[in-house]
Design goal:
With 386 residues, the protein is of the alpha+beta class. The protein folds into 3 domains: 86 residues, Butyryl-Coa Dehydrogenase, subunit A, domain 1 (Orthogonal Bundle); 106 residues, Beta Barrel (Butyryl-CoA Dehydrogenase, subunit A, domain 2), CATH 2.40.110; 144 residues, Butyryl-CoA Dehydrogenase, subunit A, domain 3, CATH 1.20.140. The protein contains 15 helices and 10 strands. The protein has a 4-stranded mixed sheet with strand order 1-4-5-8, covered by helices on one side. The protein has a 4-stranded antiparallel sheet with strand order 2-3-7-6, with no helix packed on it. Strand 2 and strand 3 form a beta hairpin. Helix 9 packs antiparallel against helix 10 and helix 11 runs antiparallel to helix 13. It is globular, with a radius of gyration of 21 Å. The structure holds flavin-adenine dinucleotide. The site of flavin-adenine dinucleotide has 20 residues, from strand 1, helix 13 and helix 14.
């Protein structure tokens, strides 16, 4: 090993993001954690403006639109530090994935969409899951049928996080229902097209994701909005979103770390049976054990992001990091809530929102079972594992 750990530049970035988060996101974070999506969207406008000013919406976007390259380890650092302070904030988010999909469209579409997406005047989100199929991404039934220079889309996507505030959504459709995953094509669908109906979903957490249900009823869309070749959608989804799982994992670990800090501080103030609760090993060892697990999970995440930055294969690592980190976060936050006692169970305390958020991320970007299936297939062989 020639070196192990973050570079000096990465440590500096972490300090800068930490300072930004504490100064700009700390005030009001608790209030925002209790808001419903629509109210949260309004309350976050000022934060969005600051994020745009920082240039985070231009990360890994084409130079033509003011974009600049940044490593995925660095993107992980930004997300981790922001989400320790305020998990409702979309820091860099899926802008790189949005950019990758948008670049498959003609130049005039790119020129129309890149500038307002970068300034966050417009938003974009991804919809692959539907009532008929979630884990089985190839089992979708939403159809796109060619009609001259257009396609006609019929179907629904649920959940489609972000749709209530999005000006466009990228969705998977079947263009050849008989061809399994080879019959899937992606489309960039402006949400103001006739036939698109968006309804908010009542989720128990993750208000910042703006959970939505979207129906497509005879939506006529010009063929130029097809993302890539017909039938290549499945591969694009898998390739584009692989590393985003790690960002999800790190945002969960950020919530776990914030909960560890809260519980540690509480344990040094709260007394029971005449002693600080931190003096009981039943409390202090729990903190020590969860800290160990969180650090192990962080190492998995950052190694996976590093592999991506080296251009090396990281599919197994990505799936390991996703299921393990979310599980570690769920267990950590749950136990830290118990250390804080009944105040931690109150909606007035951020820990209850963190727990509801990470529970949801067991599903978002693929369930633990699906991650383990990916790992097992690659390790043991698909022919045996199935
Ligand atoms: C916070 C959050 C964010 C999300 N973000 C998005 C998003 O941005 N875009 C989007 O399109 N969707 C999103 N989703 C939806 C998410 O991707 C799906 O919920 C997830 O893929 C699982 O699909 P499903 O809910 O339909 O469950 P199903 O696929 O119906 O699975 C039900 C259960 O069966 C298990 N199962 C299924 N197949 C197997 C198998 N072969 N072996 C073992 N077990 C199996 C699953 O693990 C699960 O426990 C999000 C969901 C949440 C909660």
């Amino acid at each position: 090993m020639s070196g192990f750990g973050f570079s000096e530049e990465q440590e500096t970035l972490r300090e800068e993001v930490k300072r930004f988060a504490q100064k700009e996101l700390g005030p009001g974070a608790l209030e925002r954690s209790r808001m419903q999506p629509a109210e949260l969207h309004e309350a976050s406008r000022d934060i969005d403006r600051k994020i745009v000013e920082l240039g985070w919406t231009k990360i890994n976007v084409p130079e033509k639109y003011g974009g600049y390259p940044l490593g995925h380890v660095e993107i992980g650092i930004i997300h981790e530090e922001v989400h320790k302070v305020d998990p409702t904030v979309e820091a860099v988010g899926g802008m790189e994935a949005t950019s990758a999909l948008l670049q498959t469209l003609p130049q005039d579409v790119q020129d129309e969409w890149f500038p307002p997406l970068i300034t966050r005047e417009r938003r974009h989100s991804f919809g692959f899951t539907e009532s008929a199929a979630g884990s089985d991404a190839a089992g979708i039934v939403t159809k796109a049928v060619r009609d001259g220079d257009d396609y006609i889309i019929n179907g629904e996507k649920t959940p489609l996080p972000g749709a209530t505030i999005a000006s466009a959504v990228s969705i998977s459709t079947k263009t050849d229902p008989s061809a399994g995953f080879k019959g899937i094509s992606l489309f960039w669908v402006p949400t103001d097209l006739p036939g698109v109906t968006i309804t908010p979903l009542p989720w128990m957490g993750n208000a910042g994701l703006h959970p939505s249900f979207v129906t497509f009823d005879d939506v006529r869309i010009p063929a130029k909005y097809r993302e890539g070749e017909e039938g290549m959608g499945f591969y694009t989804v898998m390739g584009t979103l692989d590393w985003l799982r790690i960002i999800v994992a790190l945002t969960c670990l950020a919530r776990a770390q914030a909960s560890l800090t809260d519980a540690m501080e509480w344990s040094k103030e709260r007394k029971a049976f005449g002693r600080l609760i931190a003096s009981y090993q039943g409390v202090s060892f729990q903190i020590a054990e969860h800290h160990t697990m969180v650090e192990a999970a962080r190492l998995l995440c950052y190694r996976t992001l590093w592999l991506k930055d080296q251009g090396k294969a990281h599919t197994i690592e990505s799936s390991m990091a996703k299921w393990f980190s979310v599980e570690v976060s769920v267990q950590c936050i749950k136990d830290m809530m118990v250390i804080i006692g009944h105040p931690g169970y109150s909606t007035e305390h951020p820990i209850s929102m963190r727990l509801r958020d990470v529970l949801g991320y067991q599903l978002g970007d693929g369930t633990p079972q699906i991650q383990k299936m990916i790992i097992a297939r690659l390790m043991i062989g698909k022919a045996v594992v199935g």
